[in-house]
Every structure is written in C-alpha cells, then in structure tokens.
Amino acid sequence: MKELKDKLEQQNIQTDHIEWSETIPENKQLHYWYGGEICTLTTNDKTMTIEANGDINFRLVDKKTGRELLYVKDKNGAGTLAHELNTYLSSDDELINAIMGKHEKYNAILLDGNWYECMIYQNDTLVDSFAFDDDKIEDCIKNLNDYLD
Fold first, then answer.
1. pLDDT in tens, the chain (149 residues)
2. Integer angstrom CA distances of residue 148 from 41, 42, 46, 120
3. Among residues 20, 32, 73, 112, which is most buried (max CB within 10 A)?
4. pLDDT at 2
5. Integer Cα distance of 68 and 75 in angstroms
6. H helical segments located in the chain
7. DSSP for residue 45
8. Sheet holding 106-112, edge to edge
C-alpha cells in the first residue's frame, strides 16, 4: 500500500484525502482482483468513491493437463477472485499473461469481467457516476484528480 501511495505522491497527487477500503498492493491494481468499494476521495463539497463493479466469471486451467484448477463466479462484488487466485497467480502481469494465453503454467478464461467506476456524492446524494477506461486503480485516481482540477 505504501508503494502505491508513494507512486501517487511522486505524480503530485495528494493521498491524505484518500480513505482506502481495500489494501491494494503495487503489483495487484487491476479491477479483476477486487469487488465493491476500493477507496473514497473527499474534497470540500464532494465525496467520490471508486468501486470495482460488475460480475466476474473466471476459469483457470492447467496448461499441461488441461484440468480446471479454479472456477470463480462473483456476482456480489465480494472480490472473491483475489482470495481464490492468490494460490496460483501473484501479480497483474501474471494474470494478464494467463488471460492472453502467455503464462507458462496457466490459461485463464474470463467469461465476464468487472470494471472501475466512480460515484460522486454531494450532501449524501448521488450526483454523477461514470465508468473509468482504466484497468489499474493508480490510473483511476490520477484521472479523477485531473477531473477535479
């Protein structure tokens, strides 16, 4: 978590107004790992939450045997994939390589995926929401910071 905060601050993004709901390691920033609220950013008049929304339907297959090692269906935004997948894959790069068929041991089949979304509240009322085009939380925070400027 400290690595991510340091990286954001190196880009002149203040992190003291960010409250984290999830612990995000530097090497696991992709939305696939998570579900639900990730963090909240507060300004003078707005509160913005970044959430990982959508359904995950994921299979992990052993390349050598063709045997299914893992099947995760998460429709509740619980972030179940991260808990189950940690045994096999340890980083965004490994996960992407498995999805692209380039991992040495595993093929990953992502049938349904989630995304990062921002909810903007003013006086506890939802006033706007949008989906990020970004796959990593660092990029979402950077783009939200640009949006606020």
1. 788 888 888 888 888 889 998 888 889 999 999 999 999 998 888 899 999 999 999 999 999 999 999 999 988 788 888 889 999 999 999 999 999 999 999 999 999 889 999 999 999 999 999 999 999 999 999 988 877 76
2. 11, 11, 10, 11
3. 32
4. 80
5. 20
6. 2-10, 80-85, 92-99, 137-148
7. S
8. 68-74, 56-62, 106-112
Q: Report the alpha-carbon distance of residue 132 to residue 149 in Å, rounded.
A: 17
CB 148 within 8 A of CB 43: yes
Q: Which residues sit opposite 49 in a β-bridge?
A: 40, 119
**Do 108 and 74 reside in the same domain of the chain?**
yes
Same domain membership, residue 120 and residue 48: yes
Token reading at 119 = 């909810």
Q: How many helices (H) and strands (E) does the chain have?
A: 4, 8
Count of domains in the chain?
Answer: 2
- Cβ atoms of 39 and 4 within 8 Å: the answer is no
Q: Which domain holds residue 49?
A: 2-54+115-148
